[in-house]
Amino acid sequence: MGLRAAAEAMRGKIAVVVGGAAGHIGRGVTLGLIDEGVEVICCDNDRDGLAAIVPEVEARGGTITALYADVEDAASLDAFYDAVAAHTDHIDILVNVPGGVARSLFEATTRESHARDIRLNYGYVVDSCHRALPLLRRSRNGGAIVNFTTIEAHRGAATFAVYAGAKAATTNFSRALAVELGKDMIRVNCLASDTSLARASNAALAPEDFARLAELGPDALGQSIEFYVPQKRPPTVEEVVDGVVFLVSDLSRTVTGTTLHVDGGTWAAFGFLDWPEGDSFMPAPLGGTLKRLSR
């Protein structure tokens, strides 16, 4: 199938975007699907974002229903899906965007923070998929689910332990569900965007991390990304959205049970950093970098 045919096939589909009104990525996913001719039903816990997304979509000539829901509250998410079922008899696409964490040593966390991290990064995804599945089954041409995960689901992410475990659960849940729903042509994939300017702004780092970076000047975060990301820059919001559009379009109609890493190569590098002072790519710094640090 070519690009033109895939684009035509997207028009008129109905998508649910959980967390689709606010934040760089959620809002971007909604607008990206709208631009492909998809009708969007989205929810968010940001009331200002909900109020802003409607006129923005209408100005693009799109159709949107924007409702309040807090994914950390199971009853709130259920109420959203009740409204979705009252609005339409089927959906074709589901995108689960929300997630988040604050960096902390595990011993400094609490039982309450564990429950929140698990709910926000795994539990609500299970509930959302469970509620959406009957509506997806009524789609005429199968369906597509995209769950946002992270590179931390694939490595030992110290200071993000519960978050990493929850995202790993989302990743393997998605893989298992893809196998279960394969015969129904309902595809289930994950997207891992890893480091992005959007995520850097949402307090994943601790305040003291940002304070130390600020002492080094406005370019410090960009310089750290150059060491870490093989392409020397994080993905833009538009590039992350392109990954979502690919996964829900007929261009990926036999892609299911996998994770698409839209990350500039960080997952491929898997800890090989481009150290300065001539050390180049290695898991640990060599003489050039160590000499510079010793100064």
TrEMBL record:
GO terms for molecular function: oxidoreductase activity. The keyword Translocase does not apply. Keywords: Oxidoreductase. SUPFAM superfamilies: NAD(P)-binding Rossmann-fold domains. It comes from the Bacteria. CDD domains: SDR_c (cd05233). Its EC number is 1.-.-.-. InterPro entries: NAD(P)-bd_dom_sf (IPR036291), SDR_fam (IPR002347). Belongs to the short-chain dehydrogenases/reductases (SDR) family. This is SDR family oxidoreductase. It comes from Novosphingobium anseongense. The lineage of its organism: Bacteria, Pseudomonadati, Pseudomonadota, Alphaproteobacteria, Sphingomonadales.
